[in-house]
Amino acid sequence: MTIEFECRYCQKVLSAPDDKAGSLARCPQCGETISVPVPEGTPSLSQADEGGSDTGTPVPEESSFLAEGTLREEESVLSTGQTICPMCGEEVPAGAMNCDYCGETLQSPGRGAWEPRKIEVGAVLSRAWGVFSSNLGRVIGVHFLAYILAVLCSLAVLILFVALGVGAVALLGEPEPGVLIALGILGYIVVLLINAVFQFYFLLGVLSYILKLVRGEQPSFNELFSGWPYLGRMLLCSLLFIFMYALGYICLIIPGIIIALMFGAYPYLLIDRNLPGIESLTQSRKITQGNLMSLFLISLVLGSIVLVPYLSLVFATVGMDRGAGPPVWFPIVMIFFMAFVYLFLIPFSVLVGGTCYAEMTNQ
């Protein structure tokens, strides 16, 4: 039998075995020291002692949750080798990141509460590379799956519009050439807009997956389909972001770079904090304050990595005999180029972006 109660600090619903009633514990979500409540009708401490139970031992005031001092680790129910999952009530090993029974996230490794802070370039790149190298298949896999799904959706939209066009011509007859061209252009624009919506939808899923991976969680590929609640706000914020970036780029390029660095964290804020309207843009400016130079240096590092495949492609084409055509090894260089860009560069760059956000918010 378990006792269910709320943490009085963060209102997380917790549960503990009934033999821990009156004991001290730490909330697995906020880390505050709390006391497991004693259910009504439970025998008093003195009665429990007479019955031979050791659960009624009173807790000294200096080590209780009422004291100003920090609870010693060995006095916590959650540090006795087992801890109680607040979601399902099952016992799991102390220090576990996730519940083995229901998958509930119990804690993030070595990180405190969400709060903006300054980052270090080396720490970001080191953490990003550690996550990337230890989850190589998952990072590449989620991007590859997103590519495939986006392409399939684009093909479905294109086939649908072509079928509608053919059906309209069959029913109404062939229109005038000018009208046909106008309808073709209009249909092309509509297809592009619909495809852009699908792109943003799967982008939200990829970013959510990557962010959870960076925080030490074990997300599933179903995370790709988690972007629907944020899609409308993502489209609105992206339109504003593109407009501000284009305006800044026109103003001698440098303002555009500053705007990109200052507001570029808005997708992660939208996913992580579920902020209303365009608040993710304003919050992005707050968490990047004091980090613009570090973000710029990280961008330079990624930019230098981008040059590797392009320079190899340039060197491969230098001295090529135009009359004889490309050499036999040229397709190998092209395959290397495409593989490097799509299987390494893009996934790693996205992972670095998620790591920057996690570091800037102390996650």
TrEMBL record:
InterPro entries annotated for this entry?
Answer: DUF975
What keywords tag this UniProt record?
A: Membrane, Transmembrane, Transmembrane helix
Q: Cite the residue spans of the region called Disordered.
A: 38-62
Record carries keyword Transmembrane = yes
Record field: transmembrane: 144-173, 179-210, 230-247, 253-271, 292-316, 328-358
Source domain of life is: Bacteria
Q: What is this protein called?
A: Double zinc ribbon
Name the source organism: Gimesia panareensis
Q: What is this organism's lineage?
A: Bacteria, Pseudomonadati, Planctomycetota, Planctomycetia, Planctomycetales
